[in-house]
Amino acid sequence: MAPKLLHCMARLLALGLSRIGSAGVVPRQMEQVRFRVSEVIADSLHNAYLEFGDPGFQGEVHLLYGDCDIFSSSQKDHDIGKIFVGRGAHPERFVWATPLDAPHLHCLHAFSGSTLVGTSTPVSVAVPLVRRENIADVADAMGPWFDGVAYMQAKEPGKAVVAQAKDASVAIVGGGMSGLMTSLLLESVGMHNWHIIESSGRVGGRIRTKYLNNTHPDQYQYQEMGPMRFPVSTTYADKNETLEIQGHKMVFQLSDVLNKLNTDYPELAINFIPFVQKIPNVPASSGGYRLPNGLIPTVADVADNPSLVYISASFNATAAVDAAQAYEEYTTANNISRQIIANMYQAHKFAVDSGYFHWPEAGYLRYALGYNDNITDYVAGSDDSLIWDSLYEGGLESLPRAFWPHVANRTTLNRKIEGLSFNETSGKIAVNRREDVMQLDSEREEYDYAVVSAPFSKVRLWDMPQYSSLLSRAISTMNYAQSCKISLHFKKRFWEYQDQPIFGGCGSVDLPGIGSVCYPSFNINATGPGVVLASYISGTPARSIAALSTEDHVALVLRSMVQIHGNIATEQYTDEFPLYASYDRQCWKVDEHQAGAWAAPLIGQQDLYFPAYYQTEFKTIFIGEHTSYTHAWIFSALDSAIRGTTQLLLDLGLVDEAKSIVNTWMGRWIKV
């Protein structure tokens, strides 16, 4: 056959095939939707951005990922979701929960009905990166670790499309450290429509620095009636090893951020000073033994002469020693305290696996080791705190003070909340209040979301939506520890000039109702007045102390100072100035804004309730130290704010912003 004829036949065949195939080709309007997406990582969340070529475009859009040359939505690798796009209300981005098996260099597609209205350029899909903390190393088998990928995958298709999300209104209920941190985080990612609602006349929550005798911070006449310190490191004598405490680094990072924000307010600068925890000359718990001069021996006295400590005889001394040793081995066998310092989240997993959330000391001795009630009570007493919580202690007024210029115009103080209610029609959550306590009908103000940082000890008294059973039980039953403090103001820092001078430090005494006595670690060797934290007691005794009148409590503590230091304590006490406070008393059980010192979950509560905090119900997200892995510490509150803000941003589809917060603020346990 002639070459020319062959050429013609080939063209006819090609034309015929193209016409035959055209019946199965989906119509294309390629410029209706344009995609913008950078490299993605498999098994993580990403924002992909949309642009609409036609401002009047409307209708349902089906988003999917598949081969770049597909001609039907059925050929997809996986669905992303379906959304209805209104005229003039075009979404700007959507959330793509990229699966672990997402193919490399395939494309995003948008279909309107059977018409392909947009295809992206090929998308580079990388394998998952090694994280700063591998979630698999710390994740609990029961799942109480915030996994943003799973969180978004559980949402209904189409719920992950973003339209004007940054304009969402957010009520931050509670102006403690977690609430303040939430405002800072939202502001940092361009969300400005938030408002803090605080029941008291100040922000800062349980941070309570009290300045006695009408003094100012730079006069150093204060004590911390709430959290007291931020541990930096600890040293283990057995290995001569000093470890940095990782968790508290978040507090120092926050301080750096606030100092940069407040360069125009030098008086708000946050500066840290050393906190002296231990010193030889502080009083010791001597079991009732007193020195010949009638005073309580010091730690140094006891170290020189152990017989100064009276130990009551046990009916079975051998069994008591064995029980104490068994408990010591249980809590130290795997160096749990070292784990906590190096990696809080791995330590939490170990604590769950080891049963630290299921045993108080007494319970472990009685039911795990089989010691009888008498031995158990002799060794451990009746304290029901979980072993995990006993490994922690828990501030600085300068922290909340540094926030104030940035939150003042969006904060309402002295507003007590009566509850929250959900509007099914508007899809908003209302914050309810009464200006007059006798007012029958509450006033309501609606928001797109409520982030509640108030403690459950107060929230349980509110009228609330019908939350899930688990969350409702967490709110109504979460246990709180109690503590009481008394600080006393003295004319001179006499304790620094006695025969055994005391320069900072805390000592425990055996006097009923006193607990620990802490001396100021600042302004040492000053010649003027000073303030001693003359009593810090927690647990069951604090409940009894809280029932005392203020007068009786102060008198009890002043008498104890006489037993520690002699009559100079009463001579130097500044009670002759009735116009000013010569003492301060803080009992958290009767604090109207807190009703508890810190969360202390009972057996089973810690691991049981965590999953409930990681679900947004009725547009409500709960944060605060009571929703964190650890309790009492300020960093626990900050940690919860990072989780809660990330949760809110994912609800709004703002994945890039959520990632920014996680990466900036050491949210090592959050997977996005």
UniProtKB/TrEMBL annotation:
It comes from Aspergillus bertholletiae. Residues 1-23 form the signal peptide. Keywords: Signal. Residues 177-644 form the Amine oxidase domain. This is Amine oxidase domain-containing protein. InterPro entries: Amino_oxidase (IPR002937), FAD/NAD-bd_sf (IPR036188), Flavin_monoamine_oxidase (IPR050281). GO terms for molecular function: L-amino-acid oxidase activity. One of its GO terms (biological process) is amino acid catabolic process.
